[in-house]
Amino acid sequence: MKTAVVVGALGVMGRYIVDKLASLPDWRVIGLSRRKGEDRPNLRYVTVDVLQPWAPDFGAATHVFYAAFQASAGKAADYASNIAPNRDMLINSVSAIERVSPNLERVVLITGTKYYGSHLGPFKTPARETDPRHAGANYYFDQIDWLTDFQKGKRWTWSDLRPQTLCGFAPGMAMSILPVIAVYAAIMKELGRPMAWPGKPGTGSNIYQVTDSGHFANAALWAATDARCANQAYNITNGDYFRWQNLWPRLAAVFGMEAGEPSPMNLTEFMADKAPVWDTLVKKYGLTPYRFDEVVAWPFGDYVFNTSWDVMSNVTKCRQHGFHEVVDSEEMFVRLLTQFREQRIVP
User: Fold this and answer.
1) Domain layout of the chain by residue ranges
2) Which fold has domain 2-163+212-235?
3) Which of 8, 82, 175, 252 could form a disulfide with 259 if both were Cys (CB 3.0 to 4.6 A apart)?
4) Is residue 126 reached through a cis peptide bond, with omega within 30 degrees of 0 on the bond before it?
5) SS3 breakdown of the chain: % helix, strand, coil, rounded to 5?
6) What are the φ and ψ backbone dihedral angles of 323, each rounded to 5 degrees?
7) Do 69 and 140 meet the contact criterion of CB atoms below 8 Å apart?
8) Phi/psi of residue 133, each to 5°?
9) Per residue in 269-315, pLDDT tens?
10) Under 8 Å between Cβ of 346 and 290
11) pTM to 2 decimals?
């Protein structure tokens, strides 16, 4: 039996890794989170705030999956500058778990394409893992530098995975575009308006990419167990590219809506007073009673939809090292947004 500790186990990355590993007969899973999850066979949740030094009260781990993240206030594009807490949570987690885990094999760190400056403006594309770092602050740099230094001379190894725009669902977590699309559609439909593209002029025509959270969980399992992944970084995306302007009408059709003409708006400002509309929708359609601020983070939508430059990662390295799965992004959006409706998250 392998024992995995998933740090950030209820997030848009962590919960999918937890579900993947817990479904396998040879894995035990310990999920760390500030909120309490529901224990299942071979899955136990531990409530802990890893911003503070702590001592694990569980047995030895063979693998650590680090999926925790703390956003800063303000624009999502500024999140990478929130260095101290994101660095310290990694340090507190890995050092504490390693202390009680003599059989530790690998630590899988999850960073992202902000490593290349994808949040700052046009950057070299398609981005490769060997590309130089962008100028300025980025907590990904602090994390990987600390982990690389901490691992020197030890028997365990690390892997660094770099996804782009995760597509999953985790209430209260900002880093997923799916609930932004789904709730935006629901609000606009209730207001009798089309599901217009909300980005500024010049956005939507650039090349973009995303990462299915379930697909990412498969990649995390591969990175944790394949010998070739020791002390290596990998871009992990669906493996294809698209332009929002071509995809948007099909997303509108999922909700029985017309896309209409682009209508630039600041979603954070526009949605600031729409909680009563959401509450009406929850009662009207018998939706799962998530709070408006719990189900979606509008600054993340503004960040994604107002990117006007190409966002492309090269995934040749992960394929050469054994991870060959791909996801059709257009099919993924239709499938997952349809599930949102079927699961009564949105009408």
Assistant:
1) 2-163+212-235, 167-208+241-312+327-342
2) Rossmann fold (3.40.50)
3) 252
4) yes
5) 40, 15, 45
6) -100, 105
7) no
8) -70, 150
9) 999 999 999 999 999 999 999 999 999 999 999 999 999 999 999 99
10) no
11) 0.95
276-to-65, 131, 237, 255, 296 alpha-carbon distances in Å: 38, 46, 36, 21, 15
Question: What is the token pair recorded at 18?
Answer: 């937890």
Residue pLDDT, tens place only, 324-335: 999 999 999 999
Q: Which residues pair with 32 in a beta bridge?
A: 7, 46
Tell me the Cα Rg of the chain.
20
Q: Report the candidate in 308, 11, 347 with the shortest Cα–Cα distance to residue 184.
A: 347
Q: How far apart are CA 7 and CA 13, in angstroms?
A: 10
Q: Which two tokens stand for residue 9?
A: 């186990």
Q: Per-residue DSSP letters for 164-204? A: SSEE---TT----SHHHHHHHHHHHHHTT------SPTT-S
Amino acid, single-letter form, for residue 314:
N
